[in-house]
Design a protein that fits this description.
The protein is mostly helical and about 600 residues long. Helices cover about 60% and strands about 5% of the residues. The chain contains 23 helices and 4 strands.
Length: about 600
């Protein structure tokens, strides 16, 4: 009986990936729902029941634009975050160490370096550990864990269906995009993210088609349960081209803050890696430190989406945090969130860096927008456009995913009129961040990815040079008689000879077929205008000349001077040595 799974793997590309896209979309939808409600449960147990704290909820998740801060046992926040960090660390470092950190980067690494293989146990451990980290108040996002969950399940699906390593990698990439696009309710941006997030300056075109299918299915499943309203509601404002220079300034600031976010995050991560304490304690230390910050800045708790919504719709004006004026609060929050996120995730906690990046960008945009509102009140009547474009440009530059993040934020806010301004700002931020990226497993382009090594690998014959071979000084003079040429050909088992003058100038080739039963000198039968190679030419070039001259050798000539011939036997010998060397290195 023929295995139906084997039949699936043999289907044409579009048919196969339409079916796999459907399956991966169902996986993304169900895993996102599971993770979403796991976070809600953890928030209820840790923050609501123990601290008595209720966080603001964005419009797209059933929230409103009215919020009054209260926490019955406010002082317990550091204790609760530390407990969450401890449980998360215990799960991760006991069962699946690769589940620590922000998740998306691990999935990207699996795509490039592990043929898409993700251990099965990573999926449940990542789900539980991340839900507890975020639900207990840790400053982290849910996109990274969702990406790793969907990517991990994609890898498992590929194993069950006995797909090739190449298809497994694609399933992982599709899982990353579909998972993120589903939980953010951004199906178009998620599909693009699947292709863009793998590289700093490139895209993976082959995953876009299945990612579109998977994101649409995942979004439909997730939205059917939690609603289809964009996370941050719908913000509509006519586009004003006069603001483009102001958005460009925001793009510059976003690029610089994006670099600060990346540098701080990995600096803190390296500090914790060098810290001489048990790995189990590091997330506790990081989460407790973050909890202390939250005593003064509770906005940094969890994803912070509710606060972003309040800022976008200008509902923070009357809000104070422990006596901190709103202007000072706006100025400090982007930098405080960077530190809080670095402590939570950099210490080994489990959570994403996308949501914090959106928060950081939103409040940076709020700062810049407020400044321009003071300077140009008529041109900038509201800070909302700067909040939205701040999200796009800050994280789009830091993640090296300007196109997909721009589309995602547009879907999250319904602000399509702001696209031109967002395009300018994110392009500038992307330029300023340079090679800095929050996802260290990204590679520059497809050419540098181990997943595409064979596609871009230079053939051995194109790497080896003529000068690496032993050249043979076999030749005949134009003035020599043809019978001498025949004798030399028979002695060396060749059917032609290079014709070289007394002053060592290459003149052409004489062929055996032309001089058999003939008399006279070689010069009479020599063919001129014969192609040749240089010492720096490749063996591929030498083989091409041999094919054109119908000989088992090629003349080596530079500026008319004859250096000898390279023979087919020498090429074969050098090629075999190189292949043995490659095989030894591969085995090692």
């Amino acid at each position: 009986m023929i295995n139906p799974m084997y039949n699936l793997s043999r289907l044409p590309y579009f048919e196969k990936w339409f079916l796999l896209g459907l399956l991966l979309g169902v996986i993304a939808g169900l895993s996102s729902l599971t993770f979403y409600f796991a976070i809600r449960l953890a928030e209820y147990l840790f923050l609501k029941q123990i601290v008595g704290l209720t966080l603001p909820v964005p419009l797209g998740e059933g929230g409103s634009l009215t919020y009054t801060f209260s926490a019955e046992r406010f002082y317990l926040i550091p204790l609760v975050t530390a407990i969450g960090g401890g449980i998360s660390g215990l799960l991760v470092y006991t069962f699946a160490p690769e589940a620590e950190g922000h998740g998306t980067d691990a999935a990207i690494s699996a795509y490039h370096n592990k043929q898409g293989k993700i251990r099965w146990r990573v999926v449940p451990i990542k789900l539980i550990a991340s839900a507890i980290t975020i639900g207990s108040g840790g400053s982290a996002g849910r996109e990274g864990p969702t990406a790793q969950l969907s990517a991990g399940l994609g890898s498992i699906l590929a194993d069950l269906l006995q797909l090739s390593p190449e298809d497994r990698r694609r399933a992982v990439a599709v899982g990353i995009g579909a998972g993120i696009g589903t939980i953010f309710k951004t199906p178009i941006g998620g599909a693009l993210l699947a292709s863009e997030i793998l590289y700093k300056r490139d895209m993976e075109p082959e995953v876009i088609y299945p990612a579109l299918v998977a994101s649409a299915i995942g979004y439909s499943i997730f939205g059917s349960v939690v609603g289809f309203t964009p996370i941050f509601g719908n913000y509509v404002e006519p586009f004003d081209p006069l603001r483009l220079p102001l958005y460009a300034v925001l793009g510059i600031a976003a690029g610089l803050v994006g670099i600060l976010y990346i540098k701080t995050f990995y600096k803190v991560t390296n500090i914790f890696r060098r810290l001489r304490v048990s790995n189990y304690l590091k997330p506790v230390i990081g989460a407790f430190s973050m909890g202390l910050i939250a005593l003064v800045f509770p906005e940094v708790i969890a994803t912070g989406y509710g606060w972003v919504d309040l800022l976008e719709f200008n509902k923070l004006n009357e809000f104070y945090t422990i006596g901190i004026p709103i202007i000072l609060l706006l100025a400090l929050l982007p930098f405080v969130k960077i530190i809080a996120t670095s402590l939570t995730i950099g210490s080994g906690g489990s959570g994403g860096v996308f949501a914090p990046g959106i928060f950081i960008g939103a409040f940076l945009g709020g700062d810049i927008g407020l400044l321009f509102h003071i300077l140009f009140p008529t041109l900038v009547p509201s800070i909302a456009p700067f909040v939205i474009i701040g999200m796009v440009s800050t994280f789009g530059g830091a993640a090296k995913a300007p196109l997909s993040v721009m589309v995602m934020v547009t879907e999250m806010t319904g602000s399509f009129q702001l696209l031109p301004g967002a395009m300018i700002a994110v392009a500038i931020a992307y330029l300023i961040t340079g090679n800095n990226t929050i996802y260290k497993s990204q590679v520059p382009t497809r050419k540098e990815s181990p997943a595409h090594a064979r596609e871009y690998e230079q053939p051995v014959m194109e790497k080896l040079r003529v000068e690496q071979c032993n050249l043979v000084k076999l030749m005949i003079r134009p003035s020599d008689r043809v019978d001498n040429a025949l004798e030399l050909m028979q002695k060396n088992l060749v059917l032609s000879l290079p014709v070289v003058t007394e002053d060592n100038k290459f003149q052409g080739i004489v062929y055996m077929r032309d001089i058999i039963n003939k008399e006279g000198t070689v010069e009479k039968y020599a063919h001129s205008g014969v192609p040749s190679v240089r010492r720096t030419s490749t063996l591929e070039d030498a083989l091409d000349v041999m094919a054109r001259t119908k000989s088992r050798w090629a003349p080596v000539v530079e500026k008319g001077e004859f250096f000898g011939i390279i023979t087919m036997e020498e090429i074969t010998s050098l090629y075999e040595k190189e292949i043995k060397k490659i095989n030894v290195n591969t085995t090692e």
